[in-house]
Amino acid sequence: MMNLFNVYPLYDIEPVKAKGSYLWDKNGVEYLDLYGGHAVISIGHSHPYYVEKLTNQLQNIGFYSNSVKIPLQQELAEKLGKLSGYEDYALFLTNSGAESNENALKLASFHNGRKKVIAFSQSFHGRTSGAVAITDNKSIVAPINYSEHVTFIPFNDIEALKENISEETCAVIVEGIQGVGGIKVTSEEFLKAARELCDQTGAVLILDSVQCGYGRSGKFFSHQYAGINPDIMTTAKGMGNGFPIGGVLISPKFKASFGLLGTTFGGNHLACAAAVAVLDVMKEENLIENASVTGDYLMSNLAQIEGIKELRGKGLMIGIEFERPVDKIRDALLFEHNIFCGYAGKHTLRLLPSLALGKAECDRFLEALSLVIKG
Q1: Phi, psi (degrees; rounded to nearest 5) at 371
Q2: Fewer beta carbons within 10 Å, N or C terminal of the chain?
């Protein structure tokens, strides 16, 4: 019998149903979902409009290749441009965040003919060859993953960027808010400096918005708090609310040509139907504003709880750091209070709920966390 390649430590929980911010396992036990399967569930599980759009699409056509017209792609691009404020940018569709970052790096290198990349301490950009080379985690970089072209510098360090960037630099790639790195927000001062230094040297500024984008921060992209425009932005996770889809938003300075980039599954009919549904719901239900308001409510109440070392994040991307290891806190929330949370490193609890999260769900979590901390 073939078995699965055993690379994931698994909770002994089997969800079989989901709605809004809740999951139910095969035994009928209800869980509050404050993790959204790694920031993927953006508009809530099984949203009726989303389900309807996918069902209708599947009944018509689920897939054909990028060799034919797929009007859903243009609809997605127009709605994404409008909601994000980047209508003059172009969209290349992919299947995942890692694939989006691969294509962003490739496009940057095509553009300026360079190959040196600056990335940052505790970065995470994906597990594929080019993306993992710019990820600051040696345990997941295999010998075959060429990385001699990458320089890692301290996160948010403007002076280090000035010292390391040059006219040989192809790209600077940074997460708007580091996810795996512990919900660390890239400062507005750093982003402005990075924009200026990239302009001076001809390097391409890439904002990895795979986890922190799509409204999670309370703006469509977290870097919009700094008022800068990157050359390239990458997206995925919340883009399809669970259906695999990613995207690369590309500045008008880049010129397309046939065969420059390509993909078999990227931008297929079902993926685009899912992504269009997500944008429609985000707009109709004001979910970006809700992420901001609900995030502020969570942050202000978390600040009243004793035993928390530091709070970080924006909107509904929140890191709660403790002096002690967080594994027992996370497990108590899950197994004693039926609340899914994530973690980043050994000391930080990571919250990445649906952008439609309500006050009642916040209160349930706040009460449970207070009880767990008191022990």
Answers
A1: -65, -40
A2: N
Mapped to the 3 state alphabet, what secondary structure does the chain carry?
A: CCCCCCCCCCCCCCEEEEEECEEEECCCCEEEECCHHHHCCCCCECCHHHHHHHHHHHHHCCCCCCCCCCHHHHHHHHHHHHHHCCCCCEEEEECCHHHHHHHHHHHHHHHHCCCEEEEECCCCCCCCHHHHHCCCCHHHCCCCCCCCCEEEECCCCHHHHHHHCCCCEEEEEEECEECCCCCEECCHHHHHHHHHHHHHHCCEEEEECCCCCCCCCCCCCHHHHHCCCCCEEEECHHHCCCCCCEEEEECCCCCCCCCCCCCCCCCCHHHHHHHHHHHHHHHHCCHHHHHHHHHHHHHHHHCCCCCCCEEEEECCEEEEECCCCCHHHHHHHHHCCCEECEEECCCEEEECCCCCCCHHHHHHHHHHHHHHHHC
Calculate mean pLDDT across residues 17-40. 98
pLDDT tens digit string along 128-146? 999 999 999 999 999 999 8
Contact 165, 201 (CB under 8 A): yes
Here the tokens at position 118 are 């600056």
Chain center to CA of 153: 22
Q: Are residues 19 and 354 in contact, defined by beta-carbon separation less than 8 angstroms?
A: no
Whole-angstrom distance, CA of residue 165 vs CA of residue 266: 33
Do 318 and 298 contact (CB within 8 A), yes or no?
A: yes
Counting residues of the chain whose pLDDT is more than 70, the rounded percentage is 100
Residue range 223-246: average pLDDT? Answer: 98
- pTM of the predicted structure, to 2 decimals: 0.97
Taking a C-beta distance cutoff of 8 angstroms, is the pair 76, 215 a contact?
no
Single out the residue of 120, 130, 58, 48 nearest to residue 94, CA to CA: 130
